[in-house]
Each structure stands twice: as C-alpha cells, then as structure tokens.
Specification:
alpha+beta, 7-stranded antiparallel sheet
Length: about 550
C-alpha cells in the first residue's frame, strides 16, 4: 500500500533508537508526558484531533520554553479521504504600524517587548479543530494539562537546558515593567528549574480550566482577555479587546509538490512550507541520482534549499493582505528556472535571517485512520518574555517575523499576519495517506522536511531511522552547519565547492522532528532523538 518500510539495517547498533510499531493509534512529540496524555485520549475513544489538542495543551505546561497559551498553531488533518488545513496564526494589533516603528529609528521589529506581540492563535485553533473533528468534551482534553500545572511534574533534561538559556541569557537584559512578570511565573527565585526538579504553576492551571469551561473563548472576550489588555495598557502594549475579539482561525486548502511519485503537502503562506515544496520540486527534476555518499547530492540539496528559501523570504506574506504568487512559485517553469541556476560552486543568496525558533511539533493517528500534523510555537524561547500577570500566559513574539522594509509584501501593518516559520507537513501517494510529519527550528524546518523526505523516499528509511540521520543546516550566505556525525570527506567536499562549512555543537540547531507512516495493518512511528521525545501507541 505504501512505499515506506521498517528499516532493519541498524539493529546491530546499540545506540540506534528503534521505530514504534502499533496497530490502533499513536502520538509522537518532544515531551513524553505530553505524548502519554495524547495516548490516554486515544484509548478513551478520542479522535486523533482530540489527542492532538490534549497533547498541545499539555506541552504548554511541560515544555513552556517552546510553546505556551500565548502561541500560534497550524494543523493538517487527514479525515475521510480529505486533507484539511488550519491556519491558527494571530494578527498584529490595529494600533501598530511599520511607519511608527521606522519613525523610532527601528530597522526591524524587536524580538522582545510589545512590538513583537501578535494575537495568540493557538487556543482558538484548538477550539476550531475540536468543533470540526472532536469526539470527547473539550474540557476533558485540557484537564490533564491543568493537573500537571496544578500538581507539578519533573522537568526533563532538554527542556531544562532551553529554560536555562532563557533565564540566564535573555531575561537579565529585560528590566522594564512589561517583562517583570516572567521571573515570577517561570523561575524559582530568578533561576530556571533544573532537570528532575518538581515544577508547579497553579496560576496556569486556573487559566487552563477557564479556557476549558469557555471553549477557549475566555482568551478572546472574557476575564483572561481583560487581564491581558489591562497589562498591555499598563506597560505600553498595543493589543486591545477589539483585536482579541476579531481573531479568527482560517481553514485553508493545502498546497503540494511531487517528489519520487509521492505528494508532499504543506500549508500555503503566510508560512514557509512552500520553500520545502519548491526545493523538493527542484530536486525531483535534477539530473543526479540521490546518493547520501555523494558530495554532489549534498551540494545540490543545499543549493536547491537556498534558492527556495530566498524566494520564499522575498514573496511570503499574509495572502489576505498581499499578493503571494503561490502557483507561479510552484510552477514547473519556475522550478526548472531555479534548477538551472545551480552551479558546481555555492551561491551567495540574499534571504532573510530568522532567529532560532523554539517550537513543538506533534503527530497523531487514530484507529479510524484520522491523521494529524500539528505545530505550535512561542517563536523564540518564551516568545516576547511578556507574561500576563497571574495567568501563566507567555505571549509569543511572532511579530518579529514582519519586515519593516517599505513596500515589502511582509511589511508590518495593522491586523496582518506575519511571515511564519512553523509548518506542519503530510505525505501521500496516489491520493492515499502515508502520514503526518514535520521538523521544528525556524528556517531549519523546510530544510528538515526535505531531508526527512529524501531519507524516506530515496533511501527507504522508516521514520525513526530518517529522523536519526545526520543533518545539514544552511544558515545564511554560503554558511552550512553539519552535525558532528557527518563524515569529514563530506565537509571537505562541500568546502571545495565554495561552502563555508562548520560543525554545529548544539542539537537544537538541526531541528526536532516527528513522523507517523501508515502501514497495511497499523502505523510505524518515529520521534526525534535530539529532544526528550518519545513516541507512544497501542
């Protein structure tokens, strides 16, 4: 039925994580406690969407350095033969404009502070997904997260390290009133919780239960909305009750590209999923056999990704407020034009430079064949580092994705959605689902999608093996980072072709992925070895 298989080639390697094989359903994400919550929902009769919502809510508690109740979210849902797309990104405040920030001498939107805060979209995305695909009560899906916030959990190692970076490197430079609450809500007397330490946040438990009781509406027009706006008014913020009340998620038609007889699916802009599709389209027509031992294949992949991301940063924007030429960018003629630009030497592109992103990705599958790819993010660490007092709501800094360049399609404007890095993905063949997947990490995300798909379709990897293979990461210009396990001859060969090659020493730079592929009698599941990740199923 599918082209995927279970890879037995690495069974003799004691350090190799094995794929999970299950009959009825599965959840994979970056934090095992959250995955266990999703599995419990499936076993209680919930749909894959129910499991995704419960997992996502739990992640706001157990991995707050990546996602929170002030995040945005996107989803792809396979249900009854149709792939549905949901854009859950929030819009900028009506009172904020590029002209105003340029008038203050700014050349880019700051990463911290109210200028970077857009309307939080994740909670509304949960509610909209549940209204269309949910089976269990919405309140029941949020209660496990509330229990972890109320009763506490032991912080996992990778989460502890990321949390510490925010406490030690970011928060000390934020001394104004807008940022004061972060230390109260997310530290222990100024320090982050250590791995294995008990962490409780009863204020967030109260918030989660208010959202559960209101179907999420309290954040957009109730007590929580009023608390958020009061904090904005008191500390120089821009969000108003009207901005929150106007927020809507958007159901969208996914876009796709062909690769090796399969279809890879992404959401359309304002996200960067189109970059993955363009790169795969360029590679699918390349006159070069895909060979992981061949330096030319590494070079060609990197150059295809550069070209795709350069165009995506030039044209990507909110399609409700700017012309985004999606069809032209994915056309065979454009892909052939870009393919012809690849030379034996590395190019010098002129893309944007997104900051490192901290994001959670989860994938779920149920016994009825519903499949979900869901992604949710603060953007950079704890986002803006602005926390609504007494709520545990850390507000995202997605507004930093806007451009302040006059006339750019992604130029900041009132009630506009910024360019987004977070992208769920899905794989099909001949109209049949293979499954959901994704890789987190700012503009590593489309690069990770390309590499996971190549490992899967060019090398026949199962999802766990594909996720575990060494990755490359094009950062900017001719600069390429390689994981330490990439052979030296590959690094030397790329350098000889003009790449500025370095070995990355931080695992989060290379993204964190999850994937579920459908088999004839169940699912094979992979979960990121670079995180605290764990796949669970039954």
């Amino acid at each position: 039925m599918t082209a995927v298989k279970v890879d037995l080639s690495q069974l003799d390697d004691p350090g190799c994580r094995r794929p999970l094989l299950v009959r009825r359903g599965a959840v994979a994400t970056s934090q095992p406690l959250a995955a266990a919550v999703g599995l419990r929902v499936l076993q209680d009769g919930g749909s894959a969407v129910d499991a995704a919502i419960a997992t996502a809510a739990c992640l706001t508690v157990v991995e707050p350095c990546s996602t929170g109740l002030g995040s945005d979210a996107f989803a792809l849902v396979w249900d009854n033969g149709v792939l549905h797309g949901l854009n859950g990104s929030g819009r900028s405040p009506a009172a904020l404009s590029a002209e105003a920030l340029r008038g203050r001498g700014l050349r880019s939107v700051p990463y911290r502070g109210w200028e970077a805060v857009t309307v939080p979209g994740a909670v509304q995305a949960w509610a909209d997904l549940h209204a269309r695909f949910g089976r269990l009560d919405f309140a029941d899906l949020l209660e496990p997260a509330a229990q972890y916030a109320d009763e506490g959990f032991l912080v996992s190692p990778v989460v502890a390290a990321a949390w510490q970076r925010s406490a030690d490197e970011v928060q000390p430079g934020l001394r104004d009133a807008a940022h004061a609450e972060w230390g109260h809500s997310f530290t222990i007397s100024g320090r982050s919780p250590r791995a294995g330490e008990l962490w409780r946040q009863p204020e967030q438990a109260v918030t989660l239960r208010a959202l559960a009781a209101s179907g999420g509406r309290d954040l957009y027009g109730g007590r929580l909305a009023a608390q958020l706006v009061r904090h904005a008014e008191a500390t120089g913020g821009y969000l108003t009750l009207d901005d929150l009340a106007r927020h809507r998620s958007t159901w969208v038609a996914p876009i796709s590209a062909s690769y090796r007889g399969h279809q890879v699916w992404e959401l359309p802009p304002n996200g960067q999923g189109i970059a993955a599709l363009m790169a795969l389209g360029i590679l699918d027509g390349a006159d070069l056999a895909p060979d992981p031992q061949n330096v030319d294949w590494w070079h060609t992949q990197i150059e295809a990704m550069k070209l795709a991301l350069t165009d995506t940063h030039a044209f990507g924007a909110d399609p409700e407020m700017a012309e985004v030429p999606v069809a032209a960018m994915l056309s065979a003629e454009n892909l052939a034009r870009l393919r012809a630009l690849i030379r034996p030497r590395a190019r010098q592109p002129v893309p944007g430079e997104p900051s490192g992103s901290h994001t959670v990705l989860l994938v779920t599958a149920d016994n009825d064949g519903q499949l979900v790819s869901f992604i949710q993010s603060n953007y950079d660490g704890f986002g803006s580092h602005i926390v609504v007092p007494n709520t545990g709501i850390a507000l995202q800094n997605r507004g930093a994705g806007f451009s302040l360049q006059s006339g750019h399609p992604n130029e900041l404007a009132a009630r506009k959605r910024p360019f987004h890095t977070i992208i769920p993905a899905f794989l099909t063949r001949d109209g049949e689902p293979i499954g959901p997947f994704g890789v987190t990490g700012a503009h590593m995300q489309p690069q990770g999608h390309v590499q996971v798909i190549s490992h899967t379709l060019d090398q026949g990897d199962d999802p766990q093996t594909a996720l575990g293979r060494a990755r490359w990461f094009w950062r900017q210009g001719r600069e390429v980072l390689l994981e330490p396990t990439v052979p030296q001859y590959i690094a030397d060969g790329l350098a000889a072709r003009g790449h500025q090659v370095g070995y990355g020493d931080r695992s989060w730079e290379f993204g964190r992925g999850q994937a579920i592929w459908r088999l004839d009698d169940g699912y094979v599941v992979g979960s990121e070895p670079r995180a605290d990740s764990h796949a669970m199923g039954w």
